[in-house]
């Protein structure tokens, strides 16, 4: 047991291993050891297929639990800021290394971002956990065991979700404790023994506490005995205490990593086309509005983005509402608290395909990145696409790969732009109105808030896609509502403000709206309530009115440009006619 390396070497002979990490953790007062076995990136066999062989080889170490994970999946988890993977894959835990590809090294700024998000997720859940546990004790003292069990269910669910988000970076919006136990067991195998199917009594208890949620919330007939809730309290309270201790232990280890981490990013080229050096050129106007931490964070984000996507050009997109301003900052006068700065970037990649456009959230700055392959940009420029012509003409270039040629930018065709914008807007507006009508029918005729919220989200999605193309000329490559809402800020900050003001109720309504597709498609239980639906409908009504006004203004501006261009042509033609020498009548 003291020397596990020979066993791991034997395992590496049987399955394609890249590296193996061994790390300790404590579960309910007992010290445990876990092996993270990283499968080689060239292996085409699913990890689940390799489990029997791994179990056979590790039979000599029965006190070690293990997880098989492909190299690519682990690399992505670390890049995305998963606290569990980051802590597990430290140098002191490395027991065997056979692969040639290193795992990502996170900088101090990136680790601090992980810490901030983890605190936000878990500490919010911990506050609610304490409130629900107090409620449970109150209802137990009143012998209302049904309501007490519901309170215990909510405390447990929120704690599990807090751990899942903070440590494992997994978000499962589900009210079934069995589902949450199944998810956490992937990382903490010992948790599976608490309510094992082989123990029918305890398995019945976990099904009972799951039933308490729907029974109390939807006022269904439900009875709980005093002995049943006492047994569940005996089982679950130590688990909740362990969750709190486990989170704090992870945060202590993360703090130690932050103190030892480097400030500057460690960048390794992963593609042949990736440039060996990165030189970013931040404009003076941008530097003047960012403090030192924000400038450093933006530089790190841009540098990593250039390396990851093999960008040939990175452009800071201008603010549509101010022609002279090339920086997208949104500060609302109604707020006393300074909002996080937000920049919009266009990244053009040398690769044939890119990641989806996305939002990068940092503690100091937020960045919305629109990613396109260079081949697509060339095609769109040939079609005289408004978005790429204006961005490459008026945007501020932050980075340009010297080995790649510049794009040939044509003159805009405003007549064609107007025709395409109106056609796209009319079509998407028709689809949005259809979905909205169906949502209203679902409310008034079926009283189905779940389906109504889903239909409302589809209406907003179609409206946003049409609005973005009509006003910007950009074909959206993904359609999550948070991303679409951020892109609409380039048209008018007022659009996104529709879902910002109003406090936590408005935020929760927008969250339900954004998650409604998954809730319906994957049969999630997190159904919205009537209040959330009413708030979402009111916010969307304001959003729709501003969107229509923005399109009307945009079309009017395009018509003015067409008239101005036509007038200029007439002036040029008349000037040419004046310079033509008339023939003389003299003989």
Quick structural gist:
By secondary structure, this protein is α+β, with helices and mostly antiparallel strands.
Can you characterise this structure?
The chain has 587 residues and is α+β, with helices and mostly antiparallel strands. It folds into 4 domains: 5-104, GMP Synthetase, Chain A, domain 3 (2-Layer Sandwich); 109-260, Four Helix Bundle (Hemerythrin (Met), subunit A); 284-400, Beta Polymerase, domain 2 (2-Layer Sandwich); 414-570, Up-down Bundle (Four Helix Bundle (Hemerythrin (Met), subunit A)), CATH 1.20.120.330. Helices cover 56% and strands 11% of the residues. The protein is built from 19 helices and 9 strands. The strands form 2 sheets. The chain has a 5-stranded mixed sheet with strand order 7-8-6-5-9, sandwiched between helices. Strand 2, helix 2 and strand 3 (64-70) form a beta-alpha-beta unit. Helix 6 runs parallel beside helix 7 (177-185) and helix 6 (145-166) packs parallel to helix 9 (226-260). The longest helix is centred in the C-terminal third of the chain and has 49 residues, at 530-578. Mean pLDDT is 82; it is low at 266-275, 318-338 and 580-587.
What is the helix fraction of residues, given as a range? 55-70%
Structural class: alpha+beta
CATH T-level topology of the largest domain: Four Helix Bundle (Hemerythrin (Met), subunit A)
Task: Find the CATH superfamily of the largest domain.
Answer: Nucleotidyltransferases  domain 2
Strand fraction equals 5-15%
Order of helices and strands: HEEHEHHEHHHHHHHEEEEHHEHHHHHH
Shape: globular
Mean pLDDT: 82
